[in-house]
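stage 2 :: seqdesign
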């Protein structure tokens, strides 16, 4: 592989990958560990905080809000100031490319006695924010956006009004935003979730929840106190996903993935890949900081296409781009439905995967809510783009390893949003 100044990477076909994969710490858990530590009264320690750009955006915003964060031998020490200790920032809070930073932080800032402005990069500035400003306004927050997009201007409003909110979209970011705003509301705020989304917020805060029919009710009381603690962050399942698929589709491959977070609200891809015929072994399952983790082993497997739709889509939403690559190499047709949310990610991921796989000669049809991929033919080389999206860059890299000729990926630097070591790891495993 080589990298030009424009960050175009050329991926050469691979004859197989072997070894142990170095994975980054989980991005979703890291954002939350940092935010919750800032709101705790006292010092929390985070073991293994990611160097990836998105979680670093959360740290930068917290520093601007007056939180002291120190590097330690094992990770970070965050000196929390309690629920009411944040300070106004003189300058806008830059969330970079990170939707999780902007949406979760908005929940916290909506209930502060000071005003804030949140900005993001070009991609984040066109992602939908009405999904958080609508419920926050129902809680009496005062927020201006530009036609539902960032920048977000949040004016002082404390306390907020507690509410019961049925989630109109399966989104852990919206759920978490409203629950965090609930910390600054009088009374109990309850989220009603019909389709399960990742549950790190409720799990990490130890919130109470119960089920009514098929809906989960999750509640938080205003002034709920967050205790300082030690967080240990498992390896990111969504990063592991690239190597789980590489392990299946490349010849003569055997990969070991240590300490991978296996929170059941995140691991639907394991079930899908196994249903396609993947040889994946789970070993040494244990619970650390309330999250299950285990070591995974994957080896070359013959995959078959299948239909993916319904509630599992929210669980595998970040893994669908790499699942498309698995589908392109599987025998038969894979049909992914009910996945319109993919159009609201860092780029329109349905369009991006149709574009990228077509450029490599795959027969793929774009649909409003997903894609249909006919697998089983070999991938050609070609020119593709990351569209500035980390998961597209890494998915196309794995496709490139399985192609018969080199694949050039424009905008490959996007991988460092979630996985700065990705390219070095790939090179080492060859
Ligand atoms: C995330 C939730 C998901 C996911 C994102 C991280 C989180 O987004 O796609 O990468 O940490 O809460 P949505 O809540 O928009 O589905």
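stage 2 :: out
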């Amino acid at each position: 592989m080589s990298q030009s100044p424009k960050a175009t990477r050329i991926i050469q076909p691979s004859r197989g990958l072997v070894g142990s994969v170095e994975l980054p710490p989980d991005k979703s858990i890291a954002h939350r560990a940092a935010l919750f530590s800032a709101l705790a009264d006292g010092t929390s320690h985070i073991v293994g905080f990611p160097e990836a750009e998105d979680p670093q955006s959360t740290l930068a915003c917290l520093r601007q809000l007056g939180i002291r964060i120190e590097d330690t031998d094992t990770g970070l020490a965050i000196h929390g100031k309690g629920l009411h200790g944040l300070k106004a920032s003189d300058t806008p809070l830059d969330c970079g490319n990170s939707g999780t930073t902007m949406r979760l932080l908005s929940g916290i800032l909506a209930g502060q006695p000071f005003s804030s402005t949140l900005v993001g990069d070009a991609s984040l500035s066109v992602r939908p924010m009405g999904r958080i400003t609508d419920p926050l306004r129902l809680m009496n927050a005062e927020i201006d956006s530009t036609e539902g997009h960032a920048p977000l201007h949040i004016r002082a409003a404390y306390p907020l009004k507690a509410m019961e909110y049925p989630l109109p979209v399966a989104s852990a970011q919206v759920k978490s935003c409203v629950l965090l705003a609930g910390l600054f509301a009088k009374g109990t705020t309850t989220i009603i979730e019909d389709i399960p989304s990742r549950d790190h917020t409720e799990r990490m805060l130890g919130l109470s929840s119960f089920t009514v029919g098929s809906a989960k009710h999750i509640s938080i009381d205003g002034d709920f106190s967050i205790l300082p603690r030690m967080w240990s962050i498992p390896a990111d399942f969504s990063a592991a996903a690239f190597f789980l698929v590489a392990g299946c589709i490349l010849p003569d491959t055997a990969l070991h993935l240590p300490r991978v977070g296996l929170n059941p609200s995140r691991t639907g891809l394991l079930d899908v890949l196994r249903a396609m015929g993947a040889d994946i072994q789970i070993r040494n399952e244990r619970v650390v900081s309330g999250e299950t983790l285990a070591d995974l082993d994957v080896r070359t497997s013959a995959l078959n296409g299948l239909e993916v739709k319904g509630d599992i889509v929210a669980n595998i939403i970040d893994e669908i781009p790499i699942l498309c690559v698995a589908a392109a190499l599987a025998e038969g047709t894979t049909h992914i439905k009910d996945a319109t949310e993919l159009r609201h990610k860092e780029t329109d991921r349905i369009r991006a995967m149709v574009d990228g796989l077509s450029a490599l000669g795959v027969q793929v049809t774009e649909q409003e809510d997903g894609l249909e991929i006919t697998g089983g033919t070999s991938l050609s080389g070609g020119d593709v783009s990351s569209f500035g999206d980390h998961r597209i860059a890494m998915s196309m890299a794995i496709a490139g390893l399985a192609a018969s000729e080199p694949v050039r990926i424009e905008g490959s630097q996007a991988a460092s949003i979630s996985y700065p070591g990705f390219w070095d790891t790939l090179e080492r495993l060859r």
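stage 3 :: structure notes
- The pocket of shikimate-3-phosphate is lined by residues 28, 100, 171-173, 176, 198, 317-318 (CB under 6 Å).
- Residues 1-5 have pLDDT under 50 and may be disordered.
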